[in-house]
Amino acid sequence: MTDKTSEKASIDKFDSQLMRGSLDLMILAVLDRDRQYGYSILQELRDASAEKVDLKAGTLYPILHRLEAEKLIRSKWDESTGRKRKWYELTKAGHKRLQQQAQTWHAYVNCIQSLLPPSLAQPLPAT
């Protein structure tokens, strides 16, 4: 792989190690918008990230099960769309965790930004 190909690959998809620590935050953020079923969560993550986050069902469902066991989300089977689907939504504890993780994530981004040399740093968006 040439340097240019390597550079492009890193822009096309986020590194799995980088994403690993942010998956809960991403999923909770998607569910904060509205209740969703598994495939729609995957699609929302892909669309919102310009296809940089392309999770597989085998990655998503264990996370959903863990978040449900931690009482951060709840699920309910529903057939109102004409197909039996398991819908997920945030609980009150899930909203609280989302707020906490978002604050932590912003602090982390600011920390990394301050460590980068000026030639690599990008201005942070206004909040």
Give a quick summary of the entry:
This protein is mainly alpha-helical. Helix content is 58%, strand content 11%.
Q: How many independent structural domains?
A: 1
Could you say what the CATH architecture is?
Orthogonal Bundle
Instruction: Name the CATH superfamily classification.
Output: Winged helix-like DNA-binding domain superfamily/Winged helix DNA-binding domain
| CATH top-level class | Mainly Alpha
| Major sheet summary line | 3 strands, antiparallel
What's the total helix number? 6
Percent range for β-strand residues: 5-15%
- The residue ranges in which pLDDT falls below 50 over 5 or more consecutive positions are 1-10
Overall number of strands: 3
Order of strands across the main sheet: 1-3-2
Structural class: mainly alpha
Radius of gyration: 17 Å
Tell the overall outline. Answer: globular
CATH topology: Arc Repressor Mutant, subunit A
What is the residue-mean pLDDT, rounded to a whole number?
87
Helix percentage range: 55-70%
Pattern of helices and strands = HHHEHHEEH
Domain Transcription regulator PadR N-terminal: 27-100
Protein name: Lineage-specific thermal regulator protein
Organism: Polystyrenella longa
InterPro entries: Metal_resp_DNA-bind_regulator (IPR052509), Tscrpt_reg_PadR_N (IPR005149), WH-like_DNA-bd_sf (IPR036388), WH_DNA-bd_sf (IPR036390)
